[in-house]
Amino acid sequence: MSAQILRTALKTYPHTAGIKNGTITDPRVVLDCVDIDPIYKVFAPMAQRQEYDVSEMAIVTYLQAKAYGKPLIMLPTVVAARLQQGCIVYNANHRAMTVADLPGARVGVRAYSQTTGMWVRGILADTYGVPLDEVEWITFEDGHLQEYVDPAGVTRAGADQKMLAMLMSGELDAAVFGNDLPSGDGITPLIPDAAAADQLWYQQHQLVPPNHIVVMRQDVAEANPEALRAVYDILKRGKEAAPVPHPANRLPTGYAALRAPLQLTLDFCARQHLLPRPLSVDALFADSLAILGQAAN
């Protein structure tokens, strides 16, 4: 049987570089990888139209897709994770600011359903007691699922407005950034010594907040279960071949390792009105578990 060609969207990381350059292969599949930067540009077409056979996807996007019945299967592996407390910043050139100043403040975030924003809000509420509904959240883009409507208290910036420019001008009191986190010119982490705060959070929770997982079109997986097994094996081998990261940056693989991170993700999403209906960790695992079995633990 010839290898199935799968149109694939993955960002280049140390653990995916060998997959994308053809060093790590599997006779059952050929991953035809496309290069799209930034990677979040693939999330909406994958969630809405299943435009790829295999795709990296933000965890909140996948959870919303699952809740809205999109035909996607999540593989039990995280490909991007980050300790998040340094991702909310303010402009010290305007005024000093602490988390205590957030009620009543205007805080920018690319989209309310952005995964980094979800983690930052969850940590602010859980760790620092910030009443999220007393913050005015200013967004700049729609979420990746057309069905999702932002909750009350979320305001859209004007079409010509940019988050960093609004932060620099003082129109925003603070802002949440992901991989585009700015630096210099007064940009200051809202949480003092964010790296130390992140390490304390990690010690308390024993997990790094997952940002991106990998999904496959349900029809592709059901028509050829070996393709799903092959993609999962390739992703595992990519991690095994990558340089060993710092323990705080480990990326969980397997159902047992993902259970606690996914449960916390679901809890934060529910509290922030990001999902139209409740989901369970078992429901998230069900589709891939039926194909991969407990061997994926």
Q: How would you explain this protein's 3D organization?
A:
The structure is a single chain. This protein has 10 helices and 11 strands. It is α/β, with parallel strands linked by helices and about 300 residues long. The chain has 2 domains: about 170 residues, D-Maltodextrin-Binding Protein, domain 2; about 120 residues, D-Maltodextrin-Binding Protein, domain 2, CATH 3.40.190.10. It has a 6-stranded mixed sheet with strand order 8-7-6-9-5-10. The chain has a 5-stranded mixed sheet with strand order 2-1-3-11-4, sandwiched between helices. Helix 4 links the parallel strand 6 and strand 7. The two termini are about 30 Å apart.
Question: The CATH topology of the largest domain is what?
Answer: D-Maltodextrin-Binding Protein, domain 2
Q: Based on the coordinates given, report the CATH architecture of the largest domain.
A: 3-Layer(aba) Sandwich
User: Under the CATH scheme, which class of the largest domain?
Assistant: Alpha Beta
Percent in helix: 25-40%
Give, in order, the helices and strands.
Answer: EHEHEHEEEHEEHEEHEHHHH
Q: How many domain units?
A: 2
The biggest beta sheet reads: 6 strands, mixed
Number of helices: 10
Low-confidence stretches at least 5 residues in length (pLDDT < 50)?
none
